[in-house]
Amino acid sequence: MKKRYLLAIAASALSFNSFASSVSCYVDTMAFDEYREGSCWGGEHYPGFSPNVAFKVNADKPVSKVDWVFSGRYSNVRGGTCSSTTCLVDVYQGEGEVTACVNRIYYKDYTWKKVNWCANAFYYYTDGGIPH
Questions:
Q1: Which end of the chain is more exposed for a tag (fewer CB within 10 A), N or C?
Q2: Is pLDDT larger for residue 93 or for residue 56?
Q3: What is the pLDDT of residue 129?
């Protein structure tokens, strides 16, 4: 019984830290979307659907602010600079890729760290017809 208890504690600790010190993403669809560490893909072909990708920083302690850098094919980062731990990036119709990297992270304990954590999102959106 004691072994099972220790195994359960170890498993829960490992699952808690499974996304530590990284960036995760998901490509928004009409289905339930889950964050994936490092890279994600998906798409939608529903008329009027607003295509976007969500990025999230995963840290091992509470975060105050994040410096994001974006590259690839996207139209807008919601909220301007997107300095929070989660942000939405509007993307174009069609097929493309957008990358989000964190180059500096500021913690709530008033410390900061220079990092290079990135996630790549591959997407394909159409309005029910041929991609633009």
A1: N
A2: 56
A3: 61
DSSP string, 8-72: HHHHHHHHHTTT-SEEEEEE--SS----EESEEEEEE--TT---EEEEEEE-SS-EEEEEEEEEE
Q: How far is CA 68 from CA 13, 49, 86, 119, 125, in A?
A: 28, 26, 10, 11, 24
Measure the N-to-C terminal CA separation of the chain; round to a whole number of Å. 60
Gap between the Cα atoms of 63 and 70, Å rounded: 19
In CATH terms, the fold of domain 20-125 is: Immunoglobulin-like (2.60.40)
Which region, left, alpha or beta, applies to residue 128 given φ > 0 means left and ψ of -120 to 50 means alpha? left
